[in-house]
Write a structure and sequence with these properties.
The chain is of the alpha/beta class. The protein contains 16 helices and 15 strands. The chain folds into 3 domains: about 270 residues, HUPs (Rossmann fold, 3-Layer(aba) Sandwich); about 150 residues, Four Helix Bundle (Hemerythrin (Met), subunit A), CATH 1.20.120.640; about 60 residues, no CATH class. Helix 1 crosses helix 10 and helix 11 runs antiparallel to helix 14. The longest helix is centred in the last third of the chain and has 26 residues. Bound molecules: zinc ion (ZN). Zinc ion binds next to loops.
Length: about 500
């Protein structure tokens, strides 16, 4: 089904562009993954879900998608200015663990949390630490091409020289004059020529544990380098989509462009996509603000800001109810509304399974189909798509009530459309928790109804009424009908 009118907003051109893969039907997609030194949190959920929908929809359209999402396990320092401690080493010291133990522990934990959000695993998940040789090769290319310089065991990217030939800052809309104005003066402690130069290879101090031999002495690669190297290693010198959170736009992605152009002479990425951030009650999430929420805390409800536990599917639906380029504010009220909304849609999908058909349909199914595709093709506009699903839900409920009609062929088509969009493309599913609770309730109800039936057969009306009234009190209504007794939870 390669007929596609998909438009993607390209951060680089600042407009929506028709999606035309470089080597259709193959699509290469690279997304910056986590630095694995702590529990996955709410901020990790948004890029994971955003690009999962991109992955799912491209596959749905019939493309062969190779989705690469890296694991950063080396060289991500606590400050962007090539200063501060290595995030993973800091954790390893705190917990007296081997750095790769920290990496493994938090990689496993990340996988578990992201799986609960029903994100498909990427096609390849490369680690920075597994690509040191390739990163050294790129450092050497940058040195050979005159875009990097060596000083005191470290190698830095020469932004000024690069900018004479190319535009450093094109992705984030900066220029070098602003960089001069906005960066601090060198304090004499640094080996850099200019404060905005960035490390592609960093000398390892004696206490630094993750270190590799190189032509420039023992050290480790600069954080930005791994993505330039691993994306092109697995997707080719040019590939289609590069994604990540907006917080990575500068300096990380800007540096990636400069490295790729500096090493190979041309850009690697056709479409740059960035998801916006999640705020919490209007504030940026941060450990110092006390509003830092891990995904495990969300799943268990174990955090002072949380009124209850939220399932992976509720969080996923909540995130998809906003466009990925809009900010999204987290609150208990918003998540509770998402929980209810999702249950209504899932119930609608079940109602759809048991609809009775008529000769004709009293509504326009083509219009629904067209509107859904228009929404998703418009730069993955999931909130509009979800609004169309809710409109259709109203019709489904009207058909169930006998107010609207549907023909057998339309019913088949509607079932497919509804489940394609809800389950396959948006990646939603029945919550395991909700599911098992529903199953338990159904079993208990069938026992109760059997007891009530026996009571009626014995003309014990008092017992039969007692069961009906007590159930009523907890919101379950019984309705006697021809087939027996039906029950409904309000
Ligand atoms: Zn990256």
């Amino acid at each position: 089904m390669l007929q596609n009118n998909l438009k993607i907003y390209n951060t680089l051109s600042r407009k929506k562009e028709n999606f035309e893969p470089i080597h259709a039907p193959f699509v290469g997609m690279y997304v910056c993954g986590p630095t694995v030194y702590g529990e996955a949190h709410l901020g990790h959920a948004r890029p994971a879900i955003t690009f999962d929908v991109v992955f799912r929809y491209l596959k749905y359209l019939g493309y062969h998608v190779r989705y690469v999402r890296n694991i950063t396990d080396v060289g991500h320092l606590t400050s962007d200015a090539d200063e501060g401690e290595d995030k993973i080493l800091k954790k390893a010291k705190q917990e007296q663990l081997e750095p790769m133990e920290v990496v493994q522990f938090y990689t496993n934990s990340y996988h578990k949390s992201i799986e609960a959000l029903n994100c498909l695993p990427p096609s390849i998940e490369p680690h920075a630490s597994g690509h040191i040789i390739e990163q050294q090769e790129m450092v050497q290319k940058l040195l050979n091409n005159g875009f990097a310089y060596q000083n005191n065991g470290s190698v830095y990217f020469d932004v000024e020289t690069y900018n004479r030939k190319h535009h450093y800052g094109k992705l984030s809309g900066r220029n070098i004059d602003e960089l001069y104005a906005n960066t601090r003066e060198l304090d004499g402690q640094t080996d850099k020529k200019n404060p905005f130069d960035f490390a592609v290879w960093k000398k390892a101090e004696p206490e630094h544990l993750q270190r590799w031999k190189s032509n420039w002495g023992e050290g480790f690669p600069g954080w930005h380098l791994e993505c330039s190297v691993m994306s092109t290693k697995y997707l080719g010198e040019t590939f289609d989509i590069h994604g990540g959170g907006m917080d990575l736009l500068f300096p990380h992605h800007e540096c990636e462009i400069a490295q790729s152009v500096g090493a190979s002479g041309h850009e690697a990425v056709k479409y740059w996509m960035h998801n916006n951030m999640i705020t919490i009650n209007g504030q940026k999430m941060g450990k110092s603000l006390g509003n830092f929420i891990t995904l495990t805390e969300l799943f268990t409800g174990n955090h002072k800001l949380l009124h209850q536990a939220y399932s992976g599917m509720t969080i996923r639906f909540f995130i998809l109810q906003a466009h990925y380029r809009s900010t999204l504010d987290f609150s208990n009220e918003a998540l509770q509304a998402s929980e209810k909304g999702l249950q209504r849609l899932l119930k609608g999908a079940k109602t759809l399974e048991n609809l009775k058909t008529s000769q004709n349909s009293s509504f326009d199914l083509n219009e629904f189909e067209q509107k859904c595709f228009e929404a998703i093709n418009d730069d993955f506009n999931t909130p509009i798509l979800i609004a169309h699903l809710f409109e259709q839900l109203t019709i489904i409920n009207r058909i169930a009530a006998g107010t609207d009609q549907i023909s057998p062929s339309h019913l088949e088509k509607l079932k497919k459309l509804f489940s394609d969009f809800l389950f396959e493309i948006l990646g939603l599913k029945e919550d395991n928790l909700q599911n098992s609770q529903t199953e338990d309730l159904e079993q208990v109800m069938s026992i109760l109804l059997e007891i009530r039936q026996k009571a009626k057969e014995n003309k014990d009306w008092q017992a039969a009424d007692f069961i009906r009234n007590k159930l009523n009190e907890v919101g379950i209504t019984l309705k006697d009908n021809k087939e027996g007794v039906a029950w409904e939870k309000s």
